[in-house]
Write a structure and sequence with these properties.
about 5% strand
């Protein structure tokens, strides 16, 4: 089980589209490997919306440019971001698991 999934963008460029694409690609690559493992049974994110991410309050992860981080599937206005699609694709492409496998 993966718990508390989010992807920090604190070292990425300020451009929102570039950050969102990089966050989605990181999650996609990570989940492609994790979800392929037969023991994997679930994924839980640290939250759904960037509105209240802990990463904007942690001094180690605050962006130096002062912009808010965008680490979760929905933006602060609750709109889907590329990360939402990356998660959906990873789950769609994961091997089917039977109830016996658990």
């Amino acid at each position: 089980m993966i718990t508390e999934l989010d992807v920090t963008d604190h070292t990425l460029p300020a451009d929102i589209a570039a950050r969102d694409a990089a966050v989605a690609a990181t999650a996609r690559d990570y989940l492609a490997v994790a979800c392929a493992h037969p023991a994997m049974v679930g994924v839980m994110s640290w939250g759904l919306s960037d509105r209240q991410t802990w990463l904007n309050n942690d001094p180690w992860y605050k962006r130096k440019d002062g912009l808010p981080q965008r680490p979760l599937p929905l933006d602060a206005e609750l709109n889907r971001k590329p990360l939402w699609d990356a998660l959906a694709r990873a789950f769609d492409q994961a091997p089917v698991r039977s109830a016996q496998a658990r």
